[in-house]
Design brief:
Rossmann fold; 24% strand; disordered N terminus
Length: 235
């Protein structure tokens, strides 16, 4: 999704999930094969799908945070994960596309950045609960699931005192079915659907639409505004 060499990829259920050694590997994608194949095909159409630069909303959104453990949801070709790792964060990055992860791992080696790459869907990744100081979801194509499972996985991954930063393109959740080749916003998770689940154990720090810091190139460069949700888990 957004924006692997075998030696750099961890299995989703690896017992060393919390270790610093990212040299382990098991070739076992966990998730819906149709979703994986769809994104593999999309990435395979171009030598590079995204800009290669970290998302501006992420850079701005974590400027006041001390580095800790971070989960990058839908890491794509790895620009955000690599930037976070080079900024001192301990990074776990989840992605459904093996084509994207191969590029991400190669870029990380070139940059001298260490990242745990997890080839899995978010709801199938067996993430350790309440373990991440930051959960970053930048423009994810995250399908909704019965019982809001996907949204709750995002929230459950955040440690007490940690932050969820969920960013998406403004107006995407208002498109009508069929407007974009059958795209139906009701099928996807948006900042508003996550915000609706926040209880009194969360404090919303940012919930707004703002102009987007536009990257040079990349598939999403035509979007000009973001919706940004930043929420802190209190306990």
């Amino acid at each position: 999704m957004a924006d692997d060499t075998a030696a750099d990829t961890l299995p989703a259920d690896d017992s060393s999930f919390g270790d610093s050694d990212d040299s382990l590997f098991a070739d076992g994608y966990v998730g819906d094969p149709a979703v994986r194949d769809e994104w593999d095909n999309r990435y395979a159409e171009r030598p590079r799908l995204w800009s290669g630069q970290p998302n501006g909303a992420l850079v701005a959104g974590v400027a006041d945070l001390a580095p800790g453990r971070v989960l990058d949801v839908g890491c794509g070709e790895g620009a955000d994960a690599i930037w976070l790792a080079r900024s001192g964060w301990d990074v776990t990055a989840v992605e459904v596309s093996g084509v994207a992860l191969a590029r991400a791992a190669a870029h990380a080696r070139e940059a001298g950045a260490r990242v745990r790459w997890v080839h899995a869907g978010l709801t199938e990744a067996a993430l350790p609960p309440a373990s991440f100081d930051l959960v970053s979801a930048q423009y994810p194509a995250l399908l909704r699931t019965p019982g809001s499972t996907a949204e709750r996985v995002l929230l459950d991954a955040v440690a007490p005192g940690g932050v969820l930063l969920f960013v998406h393109h403004a107006g995407m959740d208002e498109h009508h079915s069929g407007q974009d080749g059958g795209f139906d916003p009701a099928d996807y998770v948006w900042p508003s659907t996550v915000a609706a689940l926040l209880g009194d154990d969360w404090r919303v720090e940012v919930d707004e639409e703002r102009p987007r810091v536009l990257p040079e190139g990349g598939a999403g460069a035509h979007h000009t505004h973001d919706v940004v949700l930043r929420a802190r888990r209190l306990r």
